[in-house]
Amino acid sequence: MECPDVRQLADTFVAGELRTETNHVVYHHLERCLACRADVNSRRALRARLQSALLNAQSLGPKPKFLVELRTRLQAEAQQVPPRRAMRIPGWLARAAALVLDLFPAARTRHRG
């Protein structure tokens, strides 16, 4: 694998989305090539900073009004499922989504710490 190939795959490599065989080839190239290794390390650092900024950006989270309305709609949907079909996908999914919404503020607080 040559430098242009590695640079073309770099973002996918950093995201961990390459096949195992391709990962090995990229790792082998990075062991030999300081320029590509520096490029991949820069991309890793940028990705980490972006993830941190997004996790800590309160303005990007859902608005409380939206969460309340969504929770209400999901709970209403869960109640409309006939009892014998209660655990099929629509009812089960609505109940699970409502539970996730109930836990969302706690999970978001944990990520900031």
What does this structure look like?
The protein has about 110 residues and is mostly helical. It folds into 2 domains: about 5-55; about 60-110. The protein has 5 helices and no strands. The chain has helices at about 5-15, 20-30, 35-55, 65-80, 90-110. The longest helix is centred in the C-terminal third of the chain and has 24 residues, at about 90-110. The two termini are about 40 Å apart.
Compact summary:
The chain is mainly α and 113 residues long.
- Overall domain count: 2
* Shape field: elongated
Instruction: Provide the low-confidence segments as ranges.
Output: 107-113
Tell me the Rg in angstroms: 22 Å
Share of residues in strands = under 5%
Give the number of helices.
5
Biggest sheet details: none
Q: Helical residue percent?
A: over 70%
N- to C-terminal distance:
41 Å
Write down how many β-strands occur, each being a DSSP E stretch of 2 or more residues: 0
**Computed structural class:** mainly alpha
Give the SSE order as H and E letters.
HHHHH
Arithmetic mean of pLDDT = 82
